[in-house]
């Protein structure tokens, strides 16, 4: 029984880590696109767009933190 | 990055417009541009280098005189280079323009799709730097014949930065900066929303600590960047000092001082000998000069003595006795012969008396003295002359030795050694100070981070339950965590890069070099050092230097290739520029040439060789022919008569092609597509 609980705990932790990584890296990827657009293109209001992307992920982040 | 097309206008040998399309297909990725010396191969390399980075190869002289002379005479003061390139399936048009009158150049990059040009990019220099950093360009656009071959071991920190740049560290770092700035804004918002007294106080404290942390982290980052640079500088200074061999100088200086002391002593001896010479003259001069006179006098005295004339033949006592006895020694009575008596009496005035005898004896003694002194003078003067002569000879030898030592010292740049030693002292001090600062900052960051964590816990309890406030706080936490994730990812990647590049460099070295060499990468500054199988540093000549340059370039290409399939959420795949090499094989022997010409196109996505006939053999042509997608000849056109000048020919696919023309309209180089 202990083994099963420990395995479930490990799976849950793994799942949480993946979810966490997903949120962080997904957000970072989007933000890097904005940065690159600012460098290679003619993007205006970069900071505002960065904040908007972060706001879009806040729901998921809150969920992640609440679960924690 | 792939260069698709280069258009050169009124740049150096190229009058009007000249266009080159480069091979871009994977299977046929080599462009060969052939021309004899002075026709404009190096100008093509420099046109591309200048267009991207506004830099030139070392042997490209008069860097401000770029406009073609004929164009200048016609009143055209501008030249330009246009490069069409592709990066990550996006197309760009780069245009560098130069006005020789104002000596100013301008760079513009347009993205384009089909035939439509987009708006020019706001910061073209940053775009180029993230595609191919200037420092990295030295490994991709270079001249093989010594003058511009990268000196392995000196480009450490620059190369590390370049690798970081092409992986997109710059973009990621910009994002970190933006996230930190956003976090600061959110902090202000939190302060506005939080009206409770205790929480406000805690927040104020937290703000102060965060500010202090931020300053310390920035300072630490600066110091961490500075330290490897300082260590590299120190290493360079120590290497330079080793090369000069300071120990030799110290030995030579010691010998110089010892010889100077010996010379002073010898000169002193010469002065003493000269004084003795004068003293000999004073002491013996009269004896030397009087010797003949004394000898004559003695001969005269001896002869006179022999003849009885000296001393006077008549003794005073003897005459007085005769006069008293009044009888001559012949028996005649003098009393009766008055005349005879007076004659004898008259002899008294000349007769020898004791005083005269004493004088004569004195003269003899004097003559003897002169003779004795004369003999002494000969010995002393001879000894003096010998001493002088020997001392002069020794002095001449020592002076010669000193001159040789001084010449050797002259060859050693003493001022430079002093400067290098001062630099070394200063750098050692700077390294020590920076090390201490890093330790101090790390300690301070650790303390403040612990304080911050504690305050955040307290703040959580003290903060009133306010939804708006909680939301901003959560957002701030998210923003900070995002920045931390990026920072940690960059740190891990950098460690992996170093290991990867090192492995690649050693693999390439095995492929290119016949020697049992290996390369060590300094972890602190990413510089390369060539070592033999016993781990001793290897001195590099031009040929080996070029080979190493090609090795590193090849390794960077392989490294970039290995990143192609890595799914990195933060960093991009490494971009690699085309390999554009002027005189790539000049200093390599035939075996290396064949290896290099066949290996490079296998590794690089695009290769452009600028070669003269002396650098291109049938064997090399055969080796690479299947990979050649484009081939050009550079043809010299002269307005002058041919007269007795020879026409130059190059063989292209077995056909003889003339590459010099006379009686043309303009002096220039034209490009002929012979693909």
UniProtKB/TrEMBL annotation, chain A:
Name of the protein this chain belongs to: Uncharacterized protein
Source organism per UniProt: Alteromonas genovensis
TrEMBL record, chain B:
Coiled coil: 227-276, 378-408
One Gene Ontology MF term: ATP hydrolysis activity
Domain Rad50/SbcC-type AAA: 5-241
Taxonomy, superkingdom: Bacteria
Pfam families, alphabetized: AAA_23
A Gene Ontology BP annotation from the UniProt entry: double-strand break repair
InterPro entries recorded: P-loop_NTPase, Rad50/SbcC_AAA
Keywords: Coiled coil
PANTHER family: ABC TRANSPORTER ABCH.3
Protein name: AAA family ATPase
The species this protein was found in: Alteromonas genovensis
Lineage: Bacteria, Pseudomonadati, Pseudomonadota, Gammaproteobacteria, Alteromonadales
